[in-house]
Amino acid sequence: MTIVLGADDVVIDLPRLADELTAALRAGPTGSGQRVRAQVTPDITAMVLLPGLAPTIPAYTVKVHAKNPNRSPAITGVICLHDLATGDLLALIDSARLTALRTGLGGALGAHLLADPGARHVTVIGAGAQGRAQLEALAALRPIDSVQIRDTDPAAEERFSAWAEGLGITTSAAGPSGTGAIVLMATWSRTPVLHQVPPGTHVTSLGADEPGKVELAPALLAGALVVVDDPELAHVPADAAIGEVLRGEHPGRTSADQVTVYSPAGLPMQDLVIAWHVYRNASRRRPAVFDVGMSRPQQT
Q1: What's the N-to-C CA distance of the chain in angstroms?
Q2: Distance of alpha carbon 275 from alpha carbon 230, whole angstroms
């Protein structure tokens, strides 16, 4: 039996999911994931990410989605969760919220790992779903004193500020001065948005996940420690992969005034981690549908 989970059926335990994703990033993906892209119309890009594989999870994912920056949410689609041993389809899961969450959480984990431990001031550039997901996830990982919002749409800035205040995060009109700030970026820009930052700043850039998309100026990247999730998929020159930093194979940040950048492309493995998390939460809420102690629902 295949279960279908819409956006309203998704239950997330954010601290537990952060631990699960961190463990998966530390271990590294099983095999190499593929990203197949096709331009459908001038506005819409279709993409397939497969296979999502991770150690200890007895399942794999295939994600099919469409990107349209002129709509909200900009990314819509479905994650197919399959039994690893049989290939049986365990679940079809609406991917819009999951993609925003796993991308935002992945970016926040990179920020938390590479930023100065005392950094509590955040600037968010791009007041959309990904900016919100990053800030919410980062707030679950470390205290945040204030956030500054920057977007080309003033109304989007106002909506973001009201939302952030609802999380208990104070918004400010001016960015923090000095070292120890965090910049979270999530734009669709094809020209550099950020050219320089103060010493000690960490920048997470989610917008450079496809060829042609650019958020950071070359000079900023050249003067920073640049970490990615997969060097083969990265669209920026990288010094290390996040798994190497988590395993202690690379030191990560080495000084308080060092500028660090995390620029993930997004891995199919991350789709599996969050899909499995959601699937197991659904099994706890619907025990009659699932075989207790087994990885998949009973066949009926």
Answers
A1: 6
A2: 20
What are 254-282's pLDDT values in tens digits?
999 999 999 999 899 999 999 999 999 99
81-88 contacts at long range (C-beta below 8 A, 24 or more positions apart)? 81/272, 81/275, 81/276, 81/279, 83/58, 83/59, 83/295, 83/296, 84/53, 84/57, 84/58, 84/59, 84/60, 84/295, 85/58, 88/296, 88/299
C-alpha neighbours within 13 Å on the C-beta side of residue 120: 8
Tokens encoding 195: 């050219």
The residues, ordered by sequence, that sit 6+ positions from 84 with a Cβ below 8 Å of its Cβ are: 53, 57, 58, 59, 60, 295
In this structure, are strands 59-67 and 75-83 parallel, antiparallel, or unpaired?
A: antiparallel
Nearest 10 degrees: Cα torsion 281, 287, 293, 296:
-70
Residues 268, 54: Cα–Cα separation, whole Å: 9
Q: Residue 133 has which token pair?
A: 């997901």
Sign of dihedral through CA atoms 264, 269, 274, 275? positive
At 176-213, the pLDDT tens digits run 555 679 999 999 899 999 999 999 999 999 987 777 88
In this structure, how many other beta carbons lie within 10 angstroms of the beta carbon of residue 56?
Answer: 10
3-state class (DSSP) for residue 240: strand
Please answer whether residues 264 and 228 qualify as being in contact, where contact means their C-beta atoms are separated by less than 8 angstroms.
yes
Amino acid of residue 8: D
- Number of alpha carbons in the 13 Å side-chain half-sphere of residue 243: 15
Q: What is the DSSP letter of 207?
A: S
Classify residue 9 by its DSSP letter: G
